[in-house]
Write a structure and sequence with these properties.
12 helices; 0% strand
Length: 264
């Protein structure tokens, strides 16, 4: 087991790099759209329009990362909640799950740190605040329920798409669409995270751990529940792999039976 784990370090690094790229993109677009000094912000006075544009940018970023060579190889979880859910469903070995989660947190921190080093003070402005995800004006309770709902819906969608011979190739697009839609619609309630490592990366840079527990509790529980419901309704045999993109020739380090999908 230890030997196998040592052989998987490239995938661990790729997971870190994938979330780092996502966070770097979030910081760049966050500053462009929300910093008062940005010409784009000054030309777009409608906050809803800016939020929709942010959603489109981050949805496209997610799709691009999942389709990237690194995303195809690691599975592009980029999210401890996703990894833990697939571990619970028996698709990811325990040590692989441990290192995936650890490197996802490192990637989240590194992505924001790199963006801060390149962007400068604008990213720390209260209008951007390192793109931190915090509860909206309705408070922690609403943020908790909102995070649970969107995380449950995302994981349910991933399970339905990724385990269907007809839909599996569209899994990255479905996930990216939901990211775009959630940022556009749900962000005012919880900041739209679904991801403990994503939230921690921003919180670490901002030294702002306000309501951090919400993003460490709601997404993992919601995705575990989504996985449990899918497996109960369809059977453990209907969960084929933990990758979000499997139509490629990259190696797979999971308990994978993706090639058997069409035979089920």
């Amino acid at each position: 087991m230890l030997q196998r784990t040592r052989m998987h370090w490239p995938e661990y690094l790729m997971e870190a790099a994938c979330l780092a790229m996502f966070m770097f993109s979030a910081c760049i677009f966050g500053v462009l759209l929300e910093s008062p000094a940005s010409a784009i912000h000054q030309s777009l006075s409608d906050p809803t329009l800016r939020r929709v544009l942010m959603g489109v940018a981050m949805g496209a970023t997610a799709i691009a990362i999942i389709h990237s060579p690194w995303g195809k190889r690691s599975g592009a979880h980029m999210n401890p909640s996703v990894t833990v859910a697939f571990w619970w469903m028996g698709k990811v070995r325990a040590l692989d799950a441990f290192f995936y989660v650890a490197f996802q947190f490192l990637g989240g921190i590194a992505g924001v740190a790199l963006a801060a080093a390149l962007i400068g003070p604008a990213i720390a402005d209260t209008s951007v605040n390192y793109v931190a995800t915090v509860p909206g004006r309705w408070g922690e309770s609403v943020a908790l329920y909102a995070e649970f709902a969107i995380s449950f819906a995302l994981m349910s969608t991933v399970m339905i798409f990724s385990n269907s011979p007809r839909l599996s190739r569209f899994t990255p697009w479905a996930a990216g669409f939901l990211v775009a839609a959630y940022i556009s619609v749900e962000a005012p309630y919880s900041g739209m995270s679904m991801n403990p490592a994503r939230t921690f990366g921003s919180a670490f840079a901002a030294s702002d751990y306000q309501s951090l527990w919400i993003y460490f509790v709601a997404p993992p529980l919601a995705m575990l529940l989504a996985g449990a419901i899918y497996r109960t309704m369809n059977g453990a045999h209907a969960v084929f792999c933990a990758k979000l993109h499997h139509h490629n020739n990259q190696r797979c380090i999971f308990h994978c039976k993706w090639r058997d999908m069409g035979n089920e």
